[in-house]
Design goal:
Layout lengths: L3 H18 L3 E2 L12 E4 L2 E8 L2 E8 L2 E8 L10 E7 L7 H19 L1 H8 L9 H6 L6 H11 L4 H11 L4 H19 L2 H16 L3 H11 L5 H7 L5 H16 L1 H8 L19
Antiparallel strand pairs: 1-3, 2-3, 3-4, 4-5, 5-6
């Protein structure tokens, strides 16, 4: 029976050409012998890292899972920038050549879809997501979606434009929940702390309108993701500016999160992002 390092070594070797074609080179941990697997071991986690121009990739084995995460970003890359692009079960005690071939093919496809020269050019050409106009809501029977919510918030906070563009270009789609948690919520919270009437009116005019005529997802994003964890002091600053239809659920969500530690943890640590795929996957595939 092969050990996990031998298995990862076979996968690493078979991925060499694909990763090189996508512009990645391995990051060699200090002390690695020439020709050895460039893996870093921390406890039970084994990590093989790669870098490229404005991008990074890592293959990790931990708790019988083989996870591949990547990031495409200009400037400094931090741990929080990585997004999972492949996640499979790999049990070293139950492995065969067919499964290893599957892992190689799965990772090759996932990396190519995201980091090949053609894929990167497509991402760079990615246009800003389309929003829902007020006319379409009033006359077309449509509802405001999450994209529109993000766009309206960016409209009153110009400092968020770079993060907004990086979000939809980097993922090929707008991840609204991630944008609010990682970028916009801190700015919105600062507005609520300062409690200046003109700024509060501008903010809550948007949140009220989009809550009243928004989709279920938009309403949930406003009540839970944006306003769900304010606490009594900040919530008190908002009550005079919120529409009654918004105030009631926001108070309920804040009470629930204040009581439930597990609910707060789920809000603060959502599942890792996984790109949508239009293909069938074997039974060992997670997600």
């Amino acid at each position: 029976m092969e050990n996990i390092y031998d298995i990862l070594g076979r996968i690493y070797k078979d991925l060499t050409l694909v990763l090189a074609g996508c512009g990645f080179v391995p990051v060699i941990p200090e002390g690695t012998e020439k020709g050895a697997l460039p893996a870093k071991t921390e406890g039970d986690k084994i990590t093989i890292a790669f870098k490229g121009e404005n991008k990074a990739l890592k293959i990790e084995h931990f708790d019988k899972r083989l996870t591949v995460s990547g990031v495409l970003k200009e400037g400094e890359i931090s741990e929080g920038d990585y997004a999972v692009i492949s996640n499979s079960i790999l049990d070293p005690e139950d492995i065969n050549d067919k499964q290893i071939k599957y892992f190689v093919n799965e990772i090759s496809e996932s990396v190519t879809e995201r980091f090949s020269p053609a894929a990167e050019k497509k991402i760079k050409r990615q246009r800003a997501p389309q929003t829902v106009s007020k006319d379409k809501v009033e006359n077309g029977g449509m509802s405001y979606d999450e994209v529109t919510l993000v766009s309206r918030i960016v409209g009153i906070y110009p400092q968020l434009k770079p993060a907004y563009k990086e979000n939809y270009e980097g993922y090929g789609e707008l991840l609204a929940d991630r944008f609010f948690r990682e970028n916009a919520n801190a700015v919105i919270t600062e507005t609520i702390k300062n409690n200046r009437p003109a700024e509060m009116k501008k903010l809550f005019n948007i949140l009220n309108d989009l809550y009243l005529d928004g989709t279920n997802n938009t309403q949930s994003m406003i009540t839970v993701t944006i306003l769900g964890n304010l606490g009594d002091e900040l919530l008190a600053n908002c009550t005079d500016y919120m529409a009654p239809e918004l105030l009631t659920p926001v108070i309920q969500v804040n009470k629930q999160l204040a009581k439930s530690r597990s609910a707060r943890m789920r809000l603060e640590n959502p599942p890792a992002y996984k790109p949508r795929k239009n293909k069938k996957t074997p039974g060992s595939r997670i997600g």
